[in-house]
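Q: I'm writing up a methods section and want to include an example of the input and output format. Could you take the sequence below and give the corresponding predicted structure tokens, formatted cleanly so I can copy it straight into the document?
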Amino acid sequence: MKRILTIAIAIIVGTAITFAGDNTLTITKTSSTKAAVILKNVEPVAGLQFTIQASSNLVLQKPERSERTVSSDWTVASYIVNDTVVNVVIVSLSQTLFEAGAGMLLELAFAETDYSDESAIALVNVKVANPKAEKVSVDVENIRWNNAKPIAQEEEDFFELVPNYPNPFNPETRISYVLKKPAHVKLTVYDIQGREIECLVDKDHNAGEYTERWNALESRRNLASGIYFAQLLVDGHSVTQKMMLAK
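A: Here is the clean output for your methods example:
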């Protein structure tokens, strides 16, 4: 047990680098809403520590074990600092090792709160230890993708979704939007997993300013505290904003 604790401490504080090689820690998209952390190691690895950091337009969920950590031999501890930062420690208390090979350590879901020129998820503060509790040199590969709106700026200008108020809220918030020309409007609330919670508006509107009230207690579901999304769909164009329910 003392040896395992030494490995865990070495991951956190780091010691002398013992070797360099083709070791890589990669984060990559596995779907439009999921990303995976993949370890390729040419030498045995006893444990890892790293931070998953996303651009501000993404919301990260808690990482789930994958093929290389699914065994109960591995302790996977994750702490969500905020919706774009997750700290992770992976260590074995039974002296299990990641033998040379490659495969997924973790998979995590993410949601995009709005469109921007680019989205990114990065691995930072990476520390990897070998069985001697020595720091291992690892190349890190991150992901970035273009996520620009597929409509011209002049088309976007005919409507606006105003940030909800209050935010955070409990249990009620007001969602406002502005139309500069007549249009069909659909305003929908979703949870962080993309499930529809409530459709607040689905009808034609004249130009003007509008405000809708959303009360989480009046929803058909027993809603927990956390992040929800208001999506405004106007004549086929959409914009989404993040809302925080704090009970």
